[in-house]
Each structure stands twice: as structure tokens, then as C-alpha cells.
Amino acid sequence: MERKQIRVTDGPKAIGPYSSAIQAGETLYISGQLPVDVSSQIVGDSIGDQTKQAIDNLELTLQAAGLTLNDVVKTTVFLSDFNNFDKMNQIYAIYFTHPYPARSCFEVSRLPKDALVEIEAIAVAKVMPSFEPEPTNEDCEGRYCED
Fold first, then answer.
1. Of these residues, 60, 73, 105, 122, which one is catalytic?
2. What separation in angstroms does the CA of 8 have from each of 13, 20, 60, 62, 81?
3. Please, which pLDDT band fits residue 140 given cuts at 50, 70 and 90?
4. At CA 49, angle to CA 98 and CA 105, rounded to 5?
């Protein structure tokens, strides 16, 4: 399977030796998005502001791959303080709608740049078609369905 690096030209750059996103087949793996601007500076002091910026950065990465937040199937949220869980959820629910992506959320001792939140995601480029079985002769009243 071919791997393709996704480059985000109008968003923050990776702050270490990693790709912002890698596409493998129809799946896009997005590295943790920090609440930083294009100059890699933290945006905002509150969990609300930082969650918004992290998701905005996630959205820029998705757009660079031709996807949207609706294509996200899984997120992982890292919080430096789990007391921020409820407020993070309030902002998260503005961006993601039902059916929500699967999600895990963890408290960690520290995040890069002392951020309050970091969000990574997995997105799928297209929805797999639903399986419909081939019709049988019984479905076609005893004649071949091609008739």
C-alpha cells in the first residue's frame, strides 16, 4: 500500500520529526494537533480557545487531503487536566455532529508547548459501499434476474 505525506501549507508546521498526516489507501492518519498558530505559538489560555484552535488545525489538515470533519472516524484527545473534559466536550460538539467519531480521551502529565489539549484523528476518504447480496432466482420469481 502506498503512503502519501499530506503537507499543510496554510497551517502550523510539525514541531518535530514527524508528518502532519499520512494517507495510506483511503485512510488518513493525522498527527496530534496542538492549539498553535502558523508561527507555532499557543493560541489562547483557556481550554475552550485551545480546543477550538486544535480542531481548526485538524480541519486545515483534512482540507489539505481533500477531506472534511465529516470524514473523521476516530479521534484521540489528550488533556493536561481532566477537569477540562466538560468544556472540551462543549467545543468538540460544535465541530463534530452525529454520528460522532469514535473517541478516546486521556489525561497526560504534560503536552508539547505546555498546551492544555492535543487532538489526533483518523479519517476515511470515502465511505465503503454497503453490501447488497446478488439477487437469487427466488428474488426474480423463478426467472434469471438479468432478464
1. 105
2. 7, 7, 7, 9, 29
3. low
4. 50
Nearest to 65 by CA among 116, 122, 147: 122
Instruction: Give yes or no for residue 55 having a pLDDT over 90.
Output: yes
Beta bridge partners of 6: 21
Rounded Cα gap, residues 99 and 73, in angstroms: 9
Give the chain's end-to-end CA distance (angstroms, integer). 40
Task: Please state the CATH superfamily assignment of the domain spanning residues 3-140 in this structure.
Answer: RutC-like (3.30.1330.40)
Mean pLDDT, all residues of the chain: 90
CB 118 within 8 A of CB 111: yes
- Beta-ladder partners of 109: none
Model confidence pLDDT, tens digit, residues 79-117 = 999 999 999 999 999 999 999 999 999 999 999 999 999
Domain residue spans in the chain? 3-140
Q: Kindly indicate the confidence band of residue 130, based on its pLDDT and cuts at 50, 70 and 90.
A: very low
Q: How many CA atoms lie within 13 A of 38 on its CB side?
A: 5
Decide if 140 is catalytic. no
Backbone angles phi, psi at 45, to 5 degrees: -105, -15
pLDDT of residue 17: 94
